[in-house]
Amino acid sequence: MSFTELANARLETIGFRSTAPRRAVLRAIESASAPFTVEELLESLPGVGRATVFRTVKLLHELDLLCRVPLEDGSIRYQLSEGEHHHHLVCRRCGQFTEFTDLELDARIQEQARAHGFTLEGHAVELYGVCRSCAAGGL
Ligand SMILES: [Zn+2]
Ligand SMILES: [Zn+2]
Ligand SMILES: [Zn+2]
Predict the structure, then answer these.
(1) Smallest-distance ligand from the CA of 64
(2) 90 and 63, same structural domain?
(3) Nearest ligand, measured from the Cα of 103
(4) Cα 105 to Cα 102: distance, rounded to the nearest angstrom
(5) Distance from the CA of 125 to the center of ligand 1, in angstroms?
(6) Separation of 78 CA from ligand 2 center, angstroms?
(7) Which of 15, 80, 82, 103 is buried deepest, with most CB atoms within 10 A?
(8) Residue 12 belongs to what domain range?
């Protein structure tokens, strides 16, 4: 199943009808070759309303279908998620995110929240640096 079909199906299960503009947003996301900002996505979809693009991106992130990574320049970039909850290694040079999971880290984060009487609703862990291929000098 393509990302567009999968995302459409997931959105319908939570009550969002499949509309032509929404499918256009999904196809644009599926064909993005690099992590993108919502502004870049908007520019590539001149016929689609701003609210539809913003809402679709937010829903896809909530469904764990899209990764959302804040960069050090203040922008937020998105890329297709490979699956369930995970964390990111973010390369400062090429901008690619690599996913990793660490259940022990997740358990420690939950313990910290509990110890502070804090009701945890989510967390994000981003590691910033230089990826293996950039460190090796190539791209
Ligand atoms: Zn991710
Ligand atoms: Zn890199
Ligand atoms: Zn986690």
Answers:
(1) 1
(2) no
(3) 3
(4) 5
(5) 10
(6) 16
(7) 80
(8) 1-83
Do 54 and 18 share a structural domain?
Answer: yes
Q: What is the pLDDT of residues 61-111, one digit of tens each?
A: 999 899 999 988 889 999 999 778 899 999 999 888 899 999 999 999 999
Considering the domain architecture, whether residues 7 and 30 belong to the same structural domain is answered as yes
Residue 128 and residue 94: Cα distance in Å, rounded?
12
Tell me which ligand sits closest to the C-alpha of residue 124.
Answer: 3
Taking the C-alpha atoms of 74, 75, 81 and 84 in order, what is their torsion angle to the nearest 10 degrees? Answer: 30
Chain segment 98-109, per-residue pLDDT in tens? 999 999 999 999
Q: How far does the centroid of ligand 2 lie from the alpha carbon of residue 139, in Å?
A: 7
Ligand nearest to the Cα of 123, by number:
3
- State which H helix or E strand residue 88 sits in: strand 87-91
Residues 11 and 74 in one domain: yes
